[in-house]
Design brief:
- This protein has two domains: 7-131 and 288-318, 3-Layer(aba) Sandwich (Rossmann fold), CATH 3.40.50.1370; 133-282, 3-Layer(aba) Sandwich (Rossmann fold), CATH 3.40.50.1370.
- It is built from ten helices and nine strands.
- It has helices at 12-28, 54-65, 86-95, 110-117, 133-147, 165-176, 233-240, 244-248, 270-275, 281-300, and strands at 43-48, 69-74, 100-105, 121-127, 154-158, 180-184, 200-202, 214-217, 255-257.
């Protein structure tokens, strides 16, 4: 696997292999020295042309935990601000001798285009409304740990589906792992067609609450909306927000997820995030490092992360 551009690049076996390796790297992170020399001598560039906190930081930590050299590229202080093209910029970075580029860009398809310009491995860290594959992997990782398996589980993805790269990647990952997925939201925030995905559609959350194994809440992305698609945030909350009352109607084992940052009091109430142990938001943040370690290892390493005789990760000396 040279690149990770989309969840569609991965079949169910590869998805499972990445999650299994993320489990092993999660164990590595519990050690007194949470680091392996797996990517020693490799150079990873974090090319973020769009703002990020969680994704950038976890990729940075993931690469360093694998002993790679990391270069953080700041678009705002680069020659892009002087009119240099995206192609010239990435070709200039590549000429310095790099092995992988982690790309976030506001234009859908940008990471795929970059993969045709340079021969380094490209990992998509989010492109426009298109894809966010590592977010889907870490969400699958958290749900698998909480629920045991996604096979046969019913997951609702709620909110702004049309403008969400997270929704697109998660629909593909969850269904590939055997889950039943229902997307929920107002018609104005639904894609024009759901035929590319094997999902159900609902325009009310309430009838589903008692049967859900997980509810995945999406942020209303005001920065991506160029027209008024909902009457108000208050109206959205009244119909689709996870209020404390709605949370009480979820099964005890249900998992509550959100990719962050949250609009508290819109898609989820503060009382829920503060008091409900089913909320897995911090688990999602923590999962970013081992999952992205697994991704970088698959695109730059020799393949699967080796396991010891008891099914535990090999020692650092064995991972070369």
């Amino acid at each position: 696997m040279k690149h990770l551009l989309s969840i569609r690049d991965l079949d169910a076996d590869t998805l499972t292999a990445l999650l299994d390796d993320a489990d092993r790297f999660a164990e590595v992170l519990t050690r007194s020295v949470p680091k392996v020399p797996a990517l020693r001598g490799k150079t990873v560039v974090l090319a973020f042309f769009e703002d990020s906190t969680r994704t950038r930081s976890s990729f940075d930590l993931a690469a360093r935990r694998l002993s790679a050299d990391v270069v953080n590229f700041a678009a705002g202080s680069s020659s892009l601000s002087k009119g240099e093209s995206l192609r010239d910029t990435v070709e200039t970075i590549h000429a310095m001798g790099i092995d992988a580029m982690v790309v976030r860009h506001r234009s859908s398809g940008a990471p795929g285009q970059i993969s045709e310009w340079i021969d380094a491995s490209i990992v998509n860290a989010g492109d426009g409304w298109h894809q966010h594959p590592t977010q889907a992997l870490l969400d699958s990782f958290v749900l698998r740990r909480r629920l045991g398996s996604l096979e046969g589980r019913h997951i609702a993805i709620v909110g702004d589906i049309a403008h969400s790269r997270v929704a697109r990647s998660n629909m593909e990952a969850f269904t590939a792992l055997g889950a039943r997925v229902t997307i929920v939201g107002p018609e104005t925030l639904m894609p024009a067609s759901v035929s590319p995905w094997n999902v159900e559609v609902a325009h009310s959350l309430d009838p589903l609450l008692g049967e859900l194994d997980a509810v995945y809440l999406l942020r209303i992305q005001n920065e991506r909306l160029d027209e008024v698609l909902i009457p108000s945030n208050r109206e959205f909350r009244s119909r689709f927000g996870l209020t404390a009352e709605r949370a009480r109607r979820l099964p005890d084992h249900a998992v509550i997820c959100h990719p962050g940052p949250m609009n508290l009091g819109v898609e989820i109430d503060r009382e829920v995030t503060a008091n409900d142990t089913r909320v897995a938001v911090l688990d999602q943040v923590a999962a970013g490092v081992p999952v992205r370690m697994a991704v970088l290892y698959h695109v730059l390493g020799p393949g699967r992360f080796p396991a010891g005789d008891a099914g535990t990760p090999a020692s650092a000396e064995e991972v070369v």
